[in-house]
Amino acid sequence: MRRRGTVTRRLIIEAADALFYGEGVRGAGVDAIAKRAGVTKRTLYYHFASKDELIAAYLEARDQPTLKRLKNAMRAKDLASSVRALFKLVGSSGILPTWKGCAFIRVIHELAGQPGHPACVLARRHKKGLEQWFEEQIEAAGISKADERARELLVLMDGAITQMLTHRDPIYAEAALRAALVCLGLEGRPRARSKTAAHVYR
Amino acid sequence: MRRRGTVTRRLIIEAADALFYGEGVRGAGVDAIAKRAGVTKRTLYYHFASKDELIAAYLEARDQPTLKRLKNAMRAKDLASSVRALFKLVGSSGILPTWKGCAFIRVIHELAGQPGHPACVLARRHKKGLEQWFEEQIEAAGISKADERARELLVLMDGAITQMLTHRDPIYAEAALRAALVCLGLEGRPRARSKTAAHVYR
DNA sequence: GTCTATATGCCGATAGAC
DNA sequence: GTCTATCGGCATATAGAC
Predict the structure, then answer these.
(1) How confident is the model at residue B3 (pLDDT cuts 50, 70, 90)?
(2) Cβ contacts of B127 within 8 Å, gap of 6 or more
(3) Is B195 exposed, middle or buried (0-12, 13-18, 19+ CB in 10 A)?
(4) Which nucleotide's C1' atom has the smallest distance to the CA of B54?
(5) Considering only CA atoms, which residue is closest to the C1' of nucleotide C14?
(6) Cβ atoms within 10 Å of B111's Cβ, excluding its own
(7) Chain B contacts of A123, Cβ < 8 Å?
(8) By CB count within 10 A, which of A26, A138, B99, B153 is most buried?
(9) To the nearest 10°, the Cα dihedral for B63, B65, B68, B69?
(10) C-alpha angle B83/B84/B90, rounded to 5°?
């Protein structure tokens, strides 16, 4: 009987995570995943009915840890600091060659032709959950129309992630941070920011 | 001798465009592309040395038309109207089932493990070109630090596209539009009150 | 529950005729 | 330049022993 807590099952998901994230859910094959997990393909197919199911399990396993990591980065009391930490995280992660963007967005893009795929459903739920948490944080900071601000923040985060994956240049995470602070009303548009100061980076 | 203007070559690229964009560059095979183009695989491989080269040609063929379409949408004299038109376009496109996001961003995500792939190089160049054009428009509107504002606009656009592909809900394009107008200083937003101040009203 | 071995088909790419 | 025919490999998935 298939249970969800099996050691073998966990090993397979860990291997899938490494390969699906590293090479894409279409680029990585079950053969390589089974080999990395140290099991045979037959064992893999005992625990997962299909590759599609394994892809869904891969995202399912990433859901809470990813949220937890973001919440931990944004644990400051004041919202401005939290938002700065968020985009600092995006910028610093984005310059690492091993970083390949957001796993959920990657799946949405790779499986754009199959929006009903279980993994796509999970990805949408993950992003909705994050949006809702953003909204709670913004509301707790006493900012009105928190739902609108949360969507703006989410758009900026995913836009920053996309640009980081594209150009691997923190300048885009910084752009997103500036935009987020302005949107949230936490920082006015600087009128006379010294050009030299603004260009310290790079 | 292989020339770039051949009718056959164009037919193949058109078929590739439909299938690569519809099912992903990894999801679509050369078999299906050749069939759709009405040629044999051997002919396809006469015109393109490899599938990777065909993928690059597919993006290459999309580069100028995509830029042109965006410039046409943003042809208004005043920047605010142009920006509104941009995100209106993203929102209205994004609810069409046939729309599958930005072809360039899709490739970046699908080939995240191969940043040196010719198609990835083209995708980066395309986005850089768009960013530069944004900068020119913003500068022409008399807004300072146009380079920073252009990056913010680009991040918002790609973030909106990503969210549209994820949720198919124009509410995210609208969020990005609001953020863009605030960032460009085309629409004000009052600074947030402190949390204690907010408590006065509760 | 895990194994060895294999079914079956599609993948990208090629040989050689015309 | 386009065709028919096909290669070798890897894809997902399965049969049946233990």
Answers:
(1) low
(2) A163, A166, A167, B104, B154, B158
(3) middle
(4) C12
(5) B42
(6) 22
(7) 166
(8) B153
(9) -120
(10) 90
> Length of chain B, please?
202
- With beta carbons less than 8 A apart as the criterion, state whether B191 and A188 touch: yes
For chain B, the average pLDDT equals 93
Mutate to test the interface with A, among B51, B151, B155 (most CBs of A within 10 A): B155
Say which residues have a Cβ less than 8 Å from residue A6's Cβ, sequence separation at least 6: A47
B37 touches strand D (CB under 7 A): no
**What gap in Å lies between CA A174 and CA A154, rounded to an integer?**
15
Tell me: the pLDDT tens digits for A88-115? 999 999 999 999 999 999 999 999 999 9
Q: Amino acid letter at A146?
A: A
Angle at B26 between CA B25 and CA B30, to 5 degrees: 75
Regions of chain A short of the pLDDT cut 50: 1, 191-202
Does residue B138 contact residue B157 with C-beta atoms inside 8 Å? Answer: no
Cα–Cα distance for residue pair B173/B168, rounded to 1 Å: 10
The answer to whether the C-beta of B27 is closer than 7 A to strand D is: no
Closest nucleotide (CA of A46 to C1')?
C1
Calculate the angstrom distance between C1' of D2 and CA of B43: 6
CA A13 – CA A21 distance, rounded (Å): 12
Between CA B58 and CA B60, with CA B59 as vertex, the angle to 5 degrees is 90
Length of chain A (residues): 202
Which whole-number Å values give the CA distances from B17 to A175, B44, B59, in the listed order? 32, 14, 8
Which nt is closest to the CA of B43, judged by C1'? D2
Number of other residues whose CB lies within 10 A of the CB of residue B147: 18
pTM, entire model: 0.93
